[in-house]
Specification:
- There is one protein chain.
- The protein has helices at 8-14, 50-63, 97-100, 114-134, 189-192, 201-217, 234-243, 256-272, 283-291, 316-321; strands spanning 4-5, 21-25, 28-34, 40-46, 74-80, 83-89, 138-140, 149-151, 157-159, 166-168.
- By secondary structure, the protein is of the alpha+beta class.
- The protein is globular.
- This is Protein kinase domain-containing protein.
Length: 323
């Protein structure tokens, strides 16, 4: 169903004059609200600027072309006198990043069980595979990260925030872009430097790989406060563990099955962040790899761009471009 257009006074009414703020970002603020029929909604009120206006139109156009269990539903929008708002279905368990990052090293528990984490990874992959292969128009998201994955009451993941998305009409999925887009730490090398290859759906695959490695590690991939230099960049650290056939050293693994899940997610993540886009699997292949046997997964070549920053003060981009 096409999203309904609401007036700004309607938006104020459904959010009780923006009383219940549930999120904040560079784009603006998110408020909890309720439609006249009783359905709970999340209302994203965008800051007013030319750029955000373009992102607003982009998000409405992109998401109205989708219908999938792993894509968040847009129920309405407001575009009135410079006021712009997007009205989404409410996701009671919030965004993924709130459940996977644990800043306290003394805690040995995870917010999510390994089996649930594994099902979330598969659900996100299915959502991306739908955008890349089964939409009427191929959609490249360009901002896949834990903050943009929302979880419903059953922890079913839904991809959100299509402000940076790009529609692609070519079958090979290659797009021309004048600007780099995405969030540092998840951006594929070719997006900011075309010498690494063409920008395509494989750029989303890279972001997905970085994200599921963070899901496994329970931390940001780049941690400048790590006690040992080798632990600063998680993909580099965990690759060495696999290479030397060492214990993964991850918290919360209590069984052979959980160890298998963690190892499978790591291997898939490392395949997804290969430097050359042509060496990365498609999202269809990612799903097969996740759902298939661990015996069928080989350790991928070490990504060329997996060097950690030289000092804790270095920014995350150093880890991406330091060859």
């Amino acid at each position: 169903m096409a999203p309904k257009r609401y007036s700004y006074s309607d938006v104020k009414k459904m959010t009780d004059s923006f009383r219940n703020k549930i999120g904040q970002g560079g784009f603006g603020s998110v408020y909890r609200g309720k439609l006249p029929d009783g359905r709970l909604v999340a209302v994203k009120l965008l800051n007013i600027s030319k750029e955000k206006g373009e992102e607003f139109i982009n998000e409405v156009v992109s998401i109205t072309r989708t219908s999938h269990v792993n894509i968040v539903s847009l129920w309405g929008f407001c575009y009135e006198s410079g006021k712009r708002a997007l009205i989404y279905e409410f996701m009671c368990n919030g965004s993924l990043e709130k459940l996977i990052y644990d800043e306290d090293p003394l805690r040995s528990w995870r917010h999510l069980a390994w089996e649930k984490l594994y099902q979330i990874a598969i659900g996100i992959a299915q959502g991306l595979e739908y955008l890349h292969c089964r939409c009427n128009t191929q959609i490249l998201h360009f901002d896949v990260k834990p903050h943009n994955i929302l979880l419903d009451e059953d922890f079913c993941p839904k991809i959100s925030d299509f402000g940076l998305a790009k529609l692609c009409h070519r079958k090979d999925g290659v797009v021309s872009m004048w600007d780099a887009r995405g969030t540092m730490g998840y951006v594929a090398p070719e997006v900011f430097n075309r010498n690494f290859g063409q920008v395509s759906s494989k750029s989303d695959v890279y972001s997905y790989g970085m994200m599921i490695l963070e899901m496994v590690g329970g931390r940001k991939n780049i941690n400048a406060t790590a006690s040992r230099t080798s632990k600063i960049y998680f993909p580099h650290w965990v690759y060495k563990r696999l290479e030397l056939a060492e214990d993964l050293g991850l918290q919360g693994i209590a069984s052979k099955e959980e160890n298998e899940i963690a190892r499978k997610m790591i291997l898939v993540g490392l395949w997804c962040i290969q430097t050359d886009p042509s060496h990365r699997p498609s999202m269809s292949m990612v799903i097969n790899m996740l759902e298939g046997s661990i015996e069928g997964l080989q350790i991928p070549p070490k990504p060329v761009l997996s060097s950690p920053p030289r000092s804790p003060a270095d920014s995350s981009i150093s880890a991406l471009i330091d060859i």
